[in-house]
Structure formats: C-alpha cells, structure tokens
Amino acid sequence: MTDTTLVFDIETIPDIEGARRIHELPNASDEEVWLAMRTLRLAARGNDFMPAHLQRIVAISCVLRTASDLRIWSLGDESAGEAELVQRFFDGIERYKPTLVSWNGGGFDLPVLHYRALVHGVQAKAYWDNGLFDRDSKWNNYLKRYEFKHTDLMDVLALYSGRNNAPLHEIAVLLGFPGKLGMDGSKVFDAWRAGGVADIRAYCETDVLNTWLVYLKFQRMRGILSAEELDDELDRVRDYLAASDEPHWSEFAVAWNPDFDH
Predict the structure, then answer these.
(1) What is the pLDDT of residue 164?
(2) Which of 63, 133, 153, 189 is the most exposed place for a label (fewest CB within 10 A)?
(3) How many domains does the chain have?
C-alpha cells in the first residue's frame, strides 16, 4: 500500500464535570451528578447514553499503515489526560495527512473529538482545511461525507442509509475476524471507575484492528487491492500479532478464523 491510512476508534465515559456546570450542581458529588444526568437522559431519550458533547474521551486507539510500516497502539500513556489524547490525534493528521478510516466515526467519534477539541483549545488545522490553506483540500477533505478522505465504513457500506447500519462486531465476525473480545462500549464506564484503563485501551485497540481488517476487505471489493495484496496485508497483521506478547493480541490471533480470508 502506498497511501498512508490512519484507522481510529475512541472510548468515552460521561463528562461528569461538564454536566456539573451545565446543570448547575457545583456542590454535588460525582455520583449525584451522574444520577442527575442519567435521570434526565432516560426521561428524554429512554436510555442513558450521553450526547456527543457530554462524552469524555479516555482512550484513542489507532492503526497506522504507511508505505513501509504497520503500527497499532493507543495514544499517550495510561496517565495521559483527555486534552493530550485529542491533541495527539489531530497532530497525527497534521503530520501524515492520512486517509482516515472509522466505523461510525462520522456519527460518533468525530463529533465527540470536535467538541472535546473545542473544550480543550486543541488546534486541528489540517483536519478542518477545506481549501483555505491547501487548495487541493477544497475537493478532497475530511469533512465531505461522500468522499473517501474520511471513510466511515459503517456509513459507506449502508449506502448512507441509517436503517441499514450494522454493528462492527457482527460484520467482523461475518468476515472471520474476531470482533469484540470480552468487553463492549457499555462496560467502559464501569471499567474506568474500577481503574481498568489498561483494559479499556486494549479493548479499543482490538476494535480498531477489526476496523482495519474490514477496511482491507473493502479495499479488495473496490479493486484497490488485488487478491495477492490482500493476502500480504493480512499476513502483515498476523506477523504483528505473533511478534507481540500482549495478551489481547494473543487472544485476537486465536479467535481469527483463516477460512474466511479470501
């Protein structure tokens, strides 16, 4: 592959401090604020999943594929604050000008990143450029839904029709990939409160790798990759997993069904 591709995924928890300010609860405990948030959201929407502007990012994981390398990691270290994670993400776009790939990134991840960048004063010049700084960005930029500079796989595969959206886990499993292993988004807040930052980052990394593997199949379907090139890319991922001593990558490798690779 010659183009640089950055696949990304975020994990979030409710923004307790933001809700404390919005709902004017300066003296309330975190649990009291969370109870108020949940009660209001349940009454309004019937579930307690917070809107994008009340999500706090606790992990951002990436697959970076350059012409010569494959890297899978979570930004920052386990002690990194949200502002640092968000700035690192947009700095990566500034540095590599990659094709961005996500699963529901247009529907969730990027709006959350926008709000959190705004809150923390993060600059994201290359990301927002629609021709002001680079003329080519007028026609090829991250903000256009129907272009591939940001490829939201869920949106594209559903032909931009929300009623046909599919879960990443189910599409990954259909293709023989592991899908989610041991955690899902609904468990992240509890894991965070229990101090499970490492588990959240590991889970986010497996999600982003599933997304990369689905993207490779998509690129084969589009005619961007030949059958042989797809095999090479899948082998590159397997080699990456085999070289790691991280438990989540060992589990991922075992759960990967090679019968579906072609």
Answers:
(1) 96
(2) 133
(3) 1
